[in-house]
């Protein structure tokens, strides 16, 4: 092993450890890896930033704009709302929701498709009396499978296409993924239709806004105003008035926090109580006991102010920050009323609690301003929406532009990057999405990570590192049939992607898989497709993919719930995917 190879492997290993550690943002980790490669000399200075001009960056960025525009058109929600009124049996509701999110994820970014359809899941759950948790995890898994159908369905497909172009001179085209992706999606839909019972039945989530705070373990805080019914009375008296369903988890008096609260503690005006309880109990604490929940906007007219349940999306600016840090009230005019996080008991003041993706928030604000504010903050309403995220404009036009772009790439009239860049520009030019919203819809950390990691991954090839790993793998796989070698690659991608960003997984694994195939005497196509499938199918944890994270809080899931449904689905993907890939692409 040469010195350059040692350095390249060391940087790659350190990068993977930082990804797994999770304390640094993935885009920062990628930039550190690029900087380390420059210092070590494995990446030349004139090659360091060529990744930012790569077609991958243009395609992913443009696809995000197109996806956001389709989401704002309202067409999908209108169709699902029509279906929801006519389908009332749980199993058929599940089939409609999973099928819809699977198909939609082939056209737009999968997390966008999932976010669009989550409110429909809550409406259907209310209609059938089922828990939304029955629908949300299967929908998340369906969105991942749907991303396998087209080139732009998920970022790994785009990266794999680029690697194939470097090796063979021909990239994968728009619908080259469809035979395998459709087969796996159909298999997944059938499995999820019957296997949803693997999700623990006691998992409950927020049904609708009509039920105000439809989660049983909201954490909130309330003050004891002067002349309150409980001023001068004990905590025991308060609990007696509320009549169950409420727990006092802490008390703040004179800016000093007391975690231990005794039933005989006497309440004084100005005390702040940290509460955990059921919706009805919180309501009684306000109405019967005279407590005041958090800070209210006293200047707002009551009829113009609304309260709504929302979930924090993974790209939200709230993730990793508290309401105080973000200036939720002062800057955005939004009051944070309560927080629910699956299995979490509040240990901090409401405004000081660090928010995470998947948290369910009860927020109050001016009804007219809520749509724009929630869009800015990255919050998704969980209840039946009387408001819409973003204005609904030119419903047919965005879909027509998308169909034209996909058709032109499928017919090889223009490259994918040109088609989707043109589609994004036309959507802005026609007013289907404003330039400001278009820029906000782009996940810049993803683009930065891609631009930084492309030269790092290429350094592994230029130093001969991929040849070395390929040789090790081929020696270990000597004598294995094609299907077994293909399974090794798919399993490796599945094993790595819960810990790395799936795009990072493909940047590392795809060149290795192609080299591995070549040294065994096989064509690279099937092995590249196996990497794409393995990296796109993370069903085992809530943290490996944004779609899984998004449904954790609203679904009331625990970490281990994902493996209960995801492990058999992963096994099915392996058992069905390997022969399907070999049938379509050969060895």
TrEMBL record:
Its main location: membrane. GO terms for molecular function: monoatomic cation transmembrane transporter activity. The chain crosses the membrane at residues 5-22, 28-44, 56-76, 96-122, 134-154, 174-196, 396-429, 441-460, 472-493, 499-520, 565-585. The keyword Amino-acid biosynthesis does not apply. It comes from the Bacteria. SUPFAM superfamilies: TrkA C-terminal domain-like. PROSITE patterns: RCK_C. Keywords: Membrane, Repeat, Transmembrane, Transmembrane helix, Transport. One of its GO terms (biological process) is potassium ion transport. CDD domains: SLC13_permease. It is found in: Membrane. This is Di-and tricarboxylate transporter. The lineage of its organism: Bacteria, Pseudomonadati, Pseudomonadota, Alphaproteobacteria, Rhodobacterales.
